[in-house]
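Quick one - first record:
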Amino acid sequence: MANEIENLEEIQRSYRNKLATVKLDFHRELYYRIDWNDRLICIKGPKGTGKTTMMLQRIKENFKDTNKALYISLDNLWFASHNIMDLIDYHYSHEGTHIFIDEVHYYDNWQTIIKNIYDDYPNLNIVYSGSSLLRIEKSQGDLSRRHVVYNLPGLSFREYLEFEGIYKTEQVSIDDLLTKHVAIAEEIDSQFKVLPVFEKYLRQGYYPFYKEARNSYGLRLQQVINQVIENDYPAIDDVSVSTIRKTKKMLMILAEKVPQTPVMVDLYREIDTDRNQGLKMLNALERGGLLGLLSSETKSLKGLTRPDKVYLNNPNLMYALTSNVNIGTVRETFFFNQLSYNHRIFLPKKGDFLVDDVYLFEVGGRNKGFEQIKDIENSFLALDGIEIGHHNRIPLWMFGMIY
């Protein structure tokens, strides 16, 4: 038992080191929406969005005795030769009340493990996080009746402003944005010049780690992309080395061409794959937070089908993956990214985006007019390059205030 305790000290040391360095000056919006009293909580999200920080913040702020909680990451090599259930049992028998499990997808049969922890240790609260690629299915442990799942995207423009210490404000509902955008924009514009800050956010600002990697941010993003495709994807889906290579090639091809209505036959031929495998790869890139797939409402109800338009997930990825960045594409990508977190978005017959089956949007520069969507009820322009709008002409940056 002495050797086992000595081995556990490695985990404890890692936990203490991470806890000591986590900062409490900024919290993601999701932090306040989570009901931390629930016994089983799942936090999903793309790599680099701050899931680890959120869990460590919860411990640091709410446990006078931090021995009651334990943070572990299942990508730690320690778990290559140790059983997680032994660790859980040790923590529980030493009066531990909470366990925070990071990178859960790196553990075989993780859903069964989480279920067993939940069932066998009834007084233990569990928070676990994993890639947005995670498939939480009834066939593997059936966690659906036990846990609450939260999704953590990257920073919204609103959160970025707070993170930078520039401006702090509450979320704006889409209804308030559409009807009160002039007053809201006037208040914000009176505090600082928003457009230069917005331009910085589009290049570096979606992933919270930009602050620690300003000069190497593009390189760090490429490393995140590689980790998602090379490590997370095969850890969650049963894919071959060949499929991983083709998925990476698919992403690079699309990065140079987005947004587009893909000629899928040509794309599949270029990466030497078939339709079914190609669609699975597209779906994996979307689930991994690397692509945004836009379809008409009709197609969206059919499951795994060809998207009508393909975007990179966010503008930061565009600047990291290609030198051929089109400003029109950046604008559309930003709009799609910020709205898709809390709203249903489809490709309409006219205009760029249909939101919640009600609101029609055309996205463009400050001089764009209503020609394409004129005489359509509930139609709006989301315009870049303006601080304050007028009637149905709304500044593009304001759509970053919605979450």
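second record:
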Amino acid sequence: MDLIQTIKDLVKFRTETGNASEIAKAAEYIKQKFAETAAKVDIFQTTASPVIFIRNTDSLDFDVIVLGHIDVVPADDKMFEPIIKEGKMFGRGTLDMKSFAAVALNSMEYAVNNNLALKFGVILSTDEEKGSKSTESFLTAYPNINAKIVLDNDVGGDITKIVSKCKNPVFVKLISTGKEAHGSTPWNGIDANELLFKTWQNIRKIYPYYSLEIAQPSDTWFDTVHFATIEGGQVSNIISNYAEALLDFRLTENSSVENLCKNLNSCMEKGVEYKIVSQSTPVVMDESNPYILDYKRFAENIMGRKIEFEHIGGATDSRAFAVKGSVVIMHSGTGDGMHASDEWVDLESVKQIADIQIKFLEHLAKK
């Protein structure tokens, strides 16, 4: 497989989450990649969005699964025309994460063509950027699917780091109810916006504010929250009787949703309530796990340098397998501009990830 050309081809598909026609074209492109091989390719249709399921076995008890996605966040037309400059490929999805979806396809082609004695699968979702509902539907349809090892390349940014911990994303909606009145007579009403702001200030006493203008803490492994969206009021001269906000909490493995609720209960102003919209689980791996150390050794040999472990605040779809006991190895290539207008990936790092993945699969097949 021409890895770089495959990346370019995938980037050209405008697979913004929800763009069903382009997603379908990209899925069919991937399916055709394996038309002349022994790989089994299913495009699993869900009510949300399809999932591309590729494997070299009929079994659902895998030795290794690679997880990823091919959907992207919105971008200008020019970002769907990839450009290579000074060893970097620029374009939407180059880092997040079509380059590494291509790596997974490359690994599958290698495993099939070389008859690796390994039950190997690739799962690519198409709505990861908006919550991975398709993955949830897929796993519900295949409740017995398991994997000893999950390779997760969707933690992009730095090939010199293997991620050993991801936080638990918990989304909370604040709902504030007040009483309408004319804007000139606020004493006749109860401002739902004001109640919401007061509640937010209470929350900030427990979970402080951070930004680019504030020095980054030396240790960032603690719970955080940001004010994701807010809506309140309809016209300028009416006291708002309703307001709501969505909060994005990121909890470490040392926290719990129960403790979060306890904190939120202490923050609510009269007229304000909350509900947990979604929650997950942190992914925490043992850095001394033999499989992880084997992978790390191959990576260091190929790169010719030491690799460190790191912890990140982002979530990962591999949590669905982590809770089943899978060893999750989170490692990606180098790049920057994820979700921005200057997104890029270092192509040498992509090739190295591809080499590391194949060497690791070969090693496992010999065990």
